[in-house]
């Protein structure tokens, strides 16, 4: 290839010319963090904010409809349907805030740490420069990992985000079940909904 001998590092060196001093150990975690941060900003947050606005509008629309509250599937005290929906609004607000709290760690990029975190074979200053450019291109305040060894070896930021998404899923499940139960009763029960 290119006039060189097969297996030779001349004229094309695998690290210097092909990988450009990079490793999958730092580029993959960095790319994963960037992709997830973009998805959260561009898709998840707008969808949740839209849901929150819809629930707020419904809460206001239903503010004068009194219903019987239930606890442990038993009748309890009266409340308005609007009050019940205001609880759903707060659940979504809490979910958005929970997810936002995970973002600072997700924004840490270990780029430039190369294979094991030492930065061996990477051009001097590559990591911070790359992070600055990625932050400018995306409009997301990415930072360079404070410890590249941790940044390439650990994926706690994903676990943290997943925990917040798990809480969101539980809230959405509860809201959907509550709304489903609103449609159940002796005359117009779940059989009609399906």
UniProtKB/TrEMBL annotation:
Domain Fumarate lyase N-terminal positions: 7-189
Enzyme class: lyase
Lineage: superkingdom: Eukaryota
Gene Ontology MF annotations: fumarate hydratase activity
Ranges where the record places region Disordered: 1-25
InterPro entries xref list: Fum_hydII, Fumarate_lyase_fam, Fumarate_lyase_N, L-Aspartase-like
One GO cellular component term: mitochondrion
Database matches in SUPFAM superfamilies: L-aspartase-like (SSF48557)
GO annotation terms (biological process): fumarate metabolic process; malate metabolic process; tricarboxylic acid cycle
Coiled-coil regions, chain positions: none
Family under the similarity heading: Belongs to the class-II fumarase/aspartase family. Fumarase subfamily.
UniProt name for this protein: fumarate hydratase
